[in-house]
Design a protein that fits this description.
mainly alpha; 2 domains; two-stranded antiparallel sheet; 18 helices
């Protein structure tokens, strides 16, 4: 039991360090905080929680062993507060990060028993809960991709991003490879959770997950590193370790130097109000992120993943593969519910549907098993005129939708109009024409509750019969 508790303690500390790294990367790879600092009319106070998450993540990464599990719940709480401010417009990995942070506050909070055991007693339930949430997310990621546009469409995300990466690095492309990419992606995303649910092959599932998500970060125009780091943090909870607390001592100086250089560059850019959209800015930061991830990824591989293949199970998956607590199962249920929202017609964005080409509306679907959704939110009925068709607008975002012949949920039009000064929009909704002006923001009488605006998010939709483009 002593050895098992020590193993759980070491697992908790390694997870805490890498989770800090994941929180830090979320802040510096998205630049949302920099956008808020450079906001016209003055910096927004909303940038402060985002910056705080990054600072706490970096602190957690380098914290002494006796402070690690004290700082972890604080970092989790701040990230959840920041998440609440940003809802609903957040990517899938930030939502998953939020669920894991709730699990941290439930199972790894600093109670008297927790401090006495240094987190060892609550680690098995925490790791089982994270594993179950990760499996649930992967399950829906696979299920959502069982649609015509992902498997066979010309704009399949399984083809588009891979071929862009191949082209950037000068790798050969063949028709056979192009056609096989969606199937290979689907197979990998299926094998990862399937293997994680077994004791004998869990290591192979984690190793496959580490390798697959490491490859994703090398896309030339997309920052996938923050998504990859969240997945890495979750996968680390599934692996046994045999390292002591000072496992960072050998690389601490070098890693601190790299992170320090990266922070200085970011601060200099923020101070100079460097244009974020410039190609020079993006290429430079993308390269730095690649170097940083390779360095930390090699540490994870050499210190955590590779040694885990031979360790005894009494330091790994010791008690259970799935949660045993009501709290754990409630979190898993919420993850499953979020994945089911496109089929229920509650929302169709941030539903573990990342890069799936999924299209589900009332009576319209590209999924192989569903002919449509239940449209419970009353926003996703193209055939019943519930989608908005833009005729003209002075808002660039809406004008781009009009040019691309995309329709959007009425809730999204309301959201865009709310954050626009002096909007002018002509549109068709429910077979009727309306015009939004500064003096008449709701000509159709549409009302959405605060809760609906805060929790639901819909992506623009193509005309029925057109290929679904690849988007997040």
């Amino acid at each position: 039991m002593i050895d098992q508790n020590r193993g759980h303690c070491v697992q908790a500390e390694i997870f805490a360090r890498f989770w800090g790294f994941a929180l830090f990367i979320q802040t510096v790879s998205t630049w949302w905080w920099l956008t808020l600092l450079n906001k016209p009319g003055g910096a927004s106070i909303l940038a402060l929680p985002e910056i705080a998450v990054g600072v706490l993540g970096l602190t957690l990464f380098f914290a002494p062993g006796n402070l690690l599990l004290r700082i972890l719940p604080l970092a989790a709480a701040v990230q959840l507060f920041n998440l609440a401010l940003q809802l609903p417009e957040i990517p899938n990995h930030r939502l998953l990060c939020g669920f894991i942070n709730v699990a941290i506050l439930i199972f790894l909070r600093p109670t008297a028993q927790f401090q006495a055991n240094k987190g060892a007693s609550s680690w098995p339930e925490f790791s089982a809960t994270v594993r179950a949430m990760l499996v649930a997310m992967y399950a829906f990621a696979v299920f959502h991709k069982l649609n015509i546009d992902f498997l066979f469409g010309p704009l399949s995300c399984g083809k588009v991003y891979a071929l862009e990466t191949f082209e950037f690095f000068g790798l050969a492309q063949t028709p056979v490879l192009t056609g096989a990419l969606p199937i290979v992606t689907l197979l990998i995303e299926f094998l990862i959770p399937a293997l994680l649910l077994t004791r004998k092959f869990a290591w192979w599932g984690a190793a496959l997950g580490f390798a697959f998500h490491a490859l994703l970060i090398f896309h030339p125009t997309k920052h996938f590193i923050d998504f990859t780091c969240v997945i890495y943090g979750a996968l680390i909870t599934t692996l046994p370790v045999n390292k002591e607390r000072d496992l960072f001592s050998g690389i601490l100086g070098k890693l601190a130097f790299l992170l320090g250089v990266f922070l200085v560059i970011n601060l200099a850019i923020a101070a100079a109000r460097f244009p974020i959209a410039s190609s020079a800015f993006y290429i430079a930061t993308q390269f730095i992120l690649w170097v940083l991830f390779i360095f930390v990824g090699l540490w994870v591989l050499s210190s955590v993943v590779w040694p885990a293949r031979r360790l005894s199970t009494n330091l790994g998956i010791t008690n259970h593969l799935i949660p045993c607590s009501v709290s754990g199962w409630l979190l898993v249920f919420l993850v499953l519910l979020n994945g089911a929202t496109p089929y229920l017609g509650i929302k169709n964005k941030v539903s573990w549907d990342m890069y799936s080409n999924l299209r589900l509306e009332e009576g319209v679907s590209n999924h192989l098993l569903f002919a449509g959704n239940l449209n419970l939110a009353g926003e996703m009925g193209q055939s019943t005129g519930q989608l908005v068709k833009i005729i003209a607008s002075n808002i660039p975002e809406l004008e781009q939708l009009r040019i691309n012949r995309l329709e959007l949920a009425r809730l999204e039009l309301d959201r865009i109009v709310r954050r626009t000064t002096a909007p002018q929009v002509s549109y068709i909704w429910q077979q009727k024409s309306f015009e939004i002006t500064e003096s008449n923001l709701k000509p159709d009488g549409y009302e959405a509750s605060y809760l609906k605006r805060k929790l639901l998010w819909f992506r623009p939709m193509v005309q029925a019969g057109e290929p679904v483009p690849c988007n997040r």
